[in-house]
Each structure stands twice: as structure tokens, then as C-alpha cells.
Request: fold
Amino acid sequence: MAPRTKTRYLNISSLTARGWTPAMIRDFLGRPDTTEPNPRSAQAAPTPLFALSRIRAAERTAKFAARLAQAARRSAAAKAAARRRRMEMLRLMAAEEIPIPKLEPSVLEARAVRHRDARTRIDIRTLDPKTLNRWKVNYLRHHLTRYDPMIEGLFGRVGRADVERSLRRRVFDAIARTYPDLQEECQRQLRASERRGTGGP
Reply:
């Protein structure tokens, strides 16, 4: 194994710091030039190392510059989207009420069934009321209340569990107020989700 020096080899972490993505490493560098034992565990896979001369040569090409700019744009767009999700979550959490649109019964039924399984045509008349109500609540929670994006915006944040629990209760309460006939199903899903400590079905 060739000895590693700061001037001759870089590991993947160092490449990432220079703006390289895994796809760029694969496309421009391919296989590593050498390896070294994993510093965290002797049983882990060796750490790949890439020659600095090859790295610099790739970085001087126009193709690399274009890929680097593309990766930067994607990273900026992802960060902007994450900020929008967080802002939306905070806005809805701060609102006095979570808005739930009032749909005509037939429209809600059709959308709930389509949301459950858009690939097959299910005859609503064959569904028992409890199943249909469960699908309605799931549709309202996940599609019309932006529940999932709000939860995603909480990922990794301190106090997420408490905020998620509060948000979940508010969402179910808002659905039950807008659709009184779904109150029993909302209460059932809330109890079930709190027993499991999850967002429900």
C-alpha cells in the first residue's frame, strides 16, 4: 500500500469539501489509486484514496467545471426547498387553526379512494363505512394539510417529538371540526399513532 501524504492523496471527505459529489468521483476518477486502513474500525472497509495529481487534472477540465456548477445549483435548490418546508411548517404551527378545505362528500370519497390506490378502480359502494372513513382521514392528513412536508421540516430538530405530537393532534382536531362525521376515525387514528409514537397510518 502506498504511503499517504497530504500532498499526494485525498480521501472522499476531502473531495467532498472541494465540491465533489459521489457521482463526480465515479465519473471523473473511477477506482481509487490506493487505500489505507479505516481509522474508525479495523474491520471496516479500507478508506479509498485518490491521487491529488489526477484530482487537479480533472478539476481543470471544462466538463468538470460544468458538473461542479450543476451540483452547486442542485445543492442550493435543495437548501431552498428545505427552508420553504421549514417556513411552511412554522407558519402553520403558529396559525390559530390549520386550514382544512370543505369538500363535497362525493368529491372527498372519490379523492380518498384514488389517493389510496390510483391504479385500480374501486367501487365505493363495496367499501364498508369504517374503511372509507379511514381513507378519507388519511387523504386529508397527507394530501390537503401538507402534514408530511411539515414533519419533514422537523427532521433532526431538538424537540421534534413534542412538536410532532402537538401538530398531529391539531391536524386531527381540525379534520374532525370540518368533517364531524370523521371525528370517531380521527380519534381512533390519534390514539393508535400515540400508542406507537408515530404519525399514524
Remarks:
- Residues 62-94 form the longest helix (33 residues).
- The two ends are 52 Å apart (CA to CA).
